[in-house]
Specification:
- The complex is a heterodimer of chains A (about 140) and B (about 160).
- Chain A is an alpha+beta fold.
- Chain A has four helices and eleven strands, in the order βββαββαββββαββα.
- In chain A, the strands form two sheets. A six-stranded mixed beta sheet of chain A has the order 8-1-2-11-10-9.
- The model of chain A has no long low-confidence stretch (mean pLDDT about 90).
- The model of chain B has no long low-confidence stretch (mean pLDDT about 90).
- Helix content of chain B is about 15%, strand content about 40%.
- By secondary structure, chain B is α+β, with helices and mostly antiparallel strands.
- Classes of the chains: A alpha+beta (about 140), B alpha+beta (about 160).
- Chains A and B meet through strand 9, helix 3, strand 10 and strand 11 of A and helix 1, strand 5, strand 6 and helix 3 of B.
């Protein structure tokens, strides 16, 4: 799992949803519409802005170079939030309550885990988050 | 394993405890306070009462969905009755963990009052189509107060409509 620290909670990205990740230290590359990774082109997605809009978060304070998470559907999700790679037991994940599950999964929230010190960790499908935003915009 | 595959693998064994039909002419109700108002539920609708749960806010939900709470490791939707029924915000002191088929839901309330016995004949109902009939299954009087009987199904239907 890739764990992004969003302040009050964590965001988890399933590593299998990505073909890889890389630092993007070049500021010009950060603003580019597409990024190349292992010979393939990926459309750049300002993932932090998506998350800030969706969860109502304040922008990240630090100016750390972003990491690009290269998705399997040709999108590169850029985030400058602190992140870590962790192995987490599947048995600790929980589906969202039934009444909310359908709606929130359409927005990309797949499941959650109550982490250390009751910190909630949302497993998201980043492609679904973007698809949902594109659907809303169209 | 992708996020979609993890969703498929995760089971959700939701317990269901259907409300038994009382044959007697007396019905029992669990009475609780939301702010200054009292409301009632059939005791079978409430599985557990928990105090002081942390609420984790959720995006893209109606305002009366306070968020998620962690009940014994299982996420439950926390409905803020104060906001839904009275359009006021508060920090619930108690959470009523409900028996609901296919869902995990808690109602936030201010305090638990008591379990009362109410003659069925003294329970009035709301005419169909009346605004109050959406969230309430009936009404009775207790200690000079009007105590609406909350319809869990009505609240969850509203949530379903608002999320559609």
């Amino acid at each position: 799992m890739f764990r992004l620290d969003l302040g009050a909670f964590d965001l988890l990205l399933a590593a299998s949803d990505f073909v890889g990740l890389d630092l993007v230290p070049d500021s010009a590359a950060v603003r580019a519409a597409s990024l190349r990774y292992k010979g393939s082109s990926f459309r750049a997605v300002p993932f932090d802005a998506v998350l800030e809009s969706f969860f109502g978060l304040a922008p990240a304070a630090d100016e750390a170079p972003p990491v690009a998470f290269f998705g399997r559907r040709g999108r590169a999700f850029l985030s400058a939030r602190p992140f870590a790679i962790e192995t987490l037991p599947l048995g600790e994940f929980r589906l969202l309550p039934g009444g909310l599950r359908g709606s929130l999964s359409r927005h990309g929230l797949a499941a959650l885990r109550f982490g250390p010190s009751s910190r909630v960790q949302f497993l998201v499908d980043p492609e679904a988050m973007i698809d949902d935003r594109l659907a809303e915009a169209s | 394993m992708t996020a979609a595959e993890i969703m498929k693998v995760l089971g959700d064994d939701v317990a269901e405890a259907p409300a038994p039909k009382a044959a007697a002419e007396i019905e029992r109700f669990f009475v609780f306070a939301v702010g200054e108002s009292w409301y009632a539920l059939p005791p079978s609708a409430v599985r557990e009462i928990i105090s002081d749960l942390e609420i984790f806010p959720l995006p893209s939900c109606p305002p009366y969905v306070a968020g998620l709470v962690n009940c014994h490791g299982i996420p439950h939707t926390a409905i803020a009755l104060m906001l839904l029924l009275r359009n006021e915000r508060d920090r619930p002191a108690r959470f009523l963990v409900l028996n609901v088929a296919d869902d995990r839901v808690v109602f936030g309330c201010t305090e638990v009052v008591e379990i009362v016995l109410v003659p069925r004949a003294s329970i009035s109902t709301f005419p169909e189509g009346e605004a109050d009939s959406k969230f309430f299954a009936g009404l009775f009087a207790l200690e000079g107060r009007r105590v609406p009987i909350l319809s869990v199904g009505g609240v969850l239907r509203q949530l379903e409509l608002d999320l559609a």
